[in-house]
């Protein structure tokens, strides 16, 4: 069972030249799992929150492709806050961690790379049920 201490910022390789920067994400190289799904959040109204759930098995790599936001990770015992504002950094979230995304800046884009295709069965959407599940593990 993972804790928030197992989730961290990964510095991605940034290749710079006069025409701009590029960061490449590759399965099992820069990303420590096989990506099965990619999605992104954008046009999130000021003051809104996203996330508010945990996953039984899903791993995620989250990048602030544009702008900034804060991700709050919670393992039932500890909380950890990550401010993302650099597209050459990714937050690696292990399975079994509750997450909320807050404080979106105007024009921000939250890029998420996931280890599994969408499955509602993998979501824990009620925090009390999440805590009960964590206690059983």
From TrEMBL:
Record-linked InterPro entries: QdtA_cupin_dom, RmlC-like_jellyroll, RmlC_Cupin_sf
Gene3D superfamilies: Jelly Rolls
A GO molecular-function annotation: isomerase activity
Enzyme Commission number, as recorded: 5.3.2.3
Domain Sugar 3,4-ketoisomerase QdtA cupin: 5-133
Transmembrane segments: none
Keywords, sorted A to Z: Isomerase
Keyword Isomerase found: yes
Name of the protein this chain belongs to: TDP-4-oxo-6-deoxy-alpha-D-glucose-3, 4-oxoisomerase
Organism: Flavobacterium bizetiae
Source species taxonomy: Bacteria, Pseudomonadati, Bacteroidota, Flavobacteriia, Flavobacteriales
């Amino acid at each position: 069972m993972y804790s928030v201490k197992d989730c961290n910022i990964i510095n991605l390789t940034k290749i710079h030249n006069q025409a701009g920067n590029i960061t490449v994400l590759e399965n099992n190289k820069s990303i420590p799992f096989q990506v099965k799904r990619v999605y992104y959040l954008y046009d999130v109204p000021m003051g809104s929150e996203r996330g508010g759930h945990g996953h039984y098995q899903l791993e995620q790599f989250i990048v602030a492709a544009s702008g900034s936001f804060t991700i709050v990770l919670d393992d039932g015992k500890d909380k950890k806050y990550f401010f993302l504002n650099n597209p050459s950094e990714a937050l690696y979230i292990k399975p079994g961690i509750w997450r909320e995304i807050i404080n979106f800046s105007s024009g921000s884009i939250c890029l998420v790379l996931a280890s599994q295709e969408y499955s509602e069965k993998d979501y824990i959407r009620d925090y009390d049920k999440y805590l009960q599940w964590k206690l059983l593990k």
